[in-house]
Each structure stands twice: as C-alpha cells, then as structure tokens.
Amino acid sequence: MTDLRTLSAAAADLVVGMRCAGCGLPGLQLCQTCRQALRPRARSCWPDPCPPELLTPTPVPPWCAAAYAGVVRAVLLEYKERGRDGLAEPLAGLLVAALRGLFATEASPGGWTLVPMASRRATVRSRGYDGVLLLSRIAARRLRGSGHDVLVTRSLRHRRRVADQAGLNATQRRENLDGALRSVVGRWSRRRAVVVVDDVVTTGATAAAAVSALRDSGAPVVGAAVLAATPRRPGRVSLSAAGEVDTTYRNAPRRVTVQNM
C-alpha cells in the first residue's frame, strides 16, 4: 500500500514539478534519504599543501562538516547554481556543526563574528540571493538560540574582478585571488573572535585570501568554517568518519580529533 509520504511527494511533483535536490527523484525538495545524507560530522580539514596565510603568524584552522561529494555536492550545486534558496535551511545544519567544532577548540570571551566570503555582484543578481551570507545568518540564528553570542558582518569586498575558481589548480587559484579582497570594517573588537565562512574548501586559496584581507584590517581571525571539503588524493587530507584528519604538510598543527556532532 502506498503510504502518505509517497502520496504527498507525488502530489508535490504534479503541482510544482519539484525534484529532490540530492537524487533527482520526483517529490519534495529534499527526500528523507538525501536529508539523512546531510547529517554533519564536524572535523578540521587542513588543505595539503596548506597556504601559508592559514599557518602564520598563528594557525587559522578550517573546519567542515562533510565531504564535498555525492548528495552533499549535488545539493550544494542546486543551491548555488540553480537558485534553490529553500535548501538553505537543511544546508545550514552543516555550517552549524562546523562552527560548533571550531568553537570547541578556540576560546572567545567576547563572542564570535562570522564573516561570509564575498560573492560577486553578478552572481548575486543572477541567483537572487547571496548564498554564503544566507547560510551564515541562518547558522548564527541557530547558534544564538543555543546560547552562543554570534554576529554576522559583511566585511569582505572584491577589489577587482576574479575568475571562476572551478577548474583552476592551486597555483592558479592563489594568483586569481592575490590582492583581490579587502575588508571594509575599520575597527574590530579584540574580544570577539572572527571566523571566515564559505561553502567549500578545496585548496584553501579562498580562505587564505580572506584571512589575509581581514588581518590587514586588524581582525582577530581564529578560524574558518565551511560546509564541506573537497576530498583529496590518497595520502593527503583524510576525511574519516571518526572525525579525524591527518595533516601531512610541513610545520602543520598537530592532529585534531573531534567527536561527531
């Protein structure tokens, strides 16, 4: 016998042509199976090789909650490229988990300030929303609801045009973003820790450029949080189910292990 959930999904597809963002099956925006695939596992996700801006003068650990593959990748692409802003709520759960992991390892007596990665104006106009900013605001609201002092500041701006990072190698990404960002905040509270927020980390070039621009303006940057990290080749960055990441580059911070959340 067909259950109520199946009937509801079929009705939704007939009315609005909705398909699951993760698997493409007709039905609701995100089926139960794909929603389960978005369950977060917070972990540190150092790129290898790691951009020096994330290591000196003090380490800026990047945290994620999933590997950028499978259902996570499919849902993020639907959110980023096809204007499905309704996916922001389920995706924000990944960002919340990454931030909780970072908060558990860094001290901030005066609270936290999230700085979303700057989006190109043309991208925001075509999509109709700023994807990383929207996720940051949802995550901040949820974290405040659980007692964390979290604010969101749109500090980063582009100085010049940059190319799409897709398809670029690590060196090309660094060159593409070199000097491309600036911070418009003139004064930062030294008691509030600053965290860079983005959707995906691959080579770390984007996070490095953001950290450099923020530190130039005096921001006390302590980490970066993303939803997902691109899986690396064997022997490089390991995204294990145990939440443990091996860092194999020179002068790397020691291994960090965090319980799944």
How would you describe the overall organization of this protein?
The chain is globular, with a radius of gyration of 19 Å. The strands form three sheets. It has a six-stranded mixed beta sheet with strand order 1-2-8-7-3-4, with helices on both faces. Strands 5-6 form a two-stranded antiparallel sheet. The longest helix is centred in the middle third of the chain and has 16 residues. The chain has about 260 residues and is of the alpha/beta class. The chain starts with a helix and ends with a strand. The protein has two domains: about 30 residues, no CATH class; about 220 residues, 3-Layer(aba) Sandwich (Rossmann fold). Strand 7, helix 8 and strand 8 form a beta-alpha-beta unit. Helix 4 packs across helix 6 and helix 7 packs parallel to helix 8.
Mind summarizing the main beta sheet?
6 strands, mixed
> What's the oligomerization state?
single chain
Report the uncertain regions: 9-15, 234-261
What's the arrangement of strands in the largest beta sheet? 1-2-8-7-3-4
Do you know the CATH topology of the largest domain? Rossmann fold
Q: Could you say which overall geometry the principal axes of the C-alpha atoms support?
A: globular
User: Termini, distance in Å?
Assistant: 36 Å
Total helical segments: 8
Mean of the pLDDT scores? 82
Query: Any idea what the CATH architecture of the largest domain is?
Result: 3-Layer(aba) Sandwich
| Secondary structure: helix percent | 25-40%
SSE ordering: HHEEHHEHHEEHEEHEEE
The Cα radius of gyration reads: 19 Å
InterPro entries: ComF/GntX_DNA_util-trans (IPR051910), PRTase-like (IPR029057), PRTase_dom (IPR000836)
Pfam families: Pribosyltran (PF00156)
Domain Phosphoribosyltransferase: 192-236
Protein name: ComF family protein
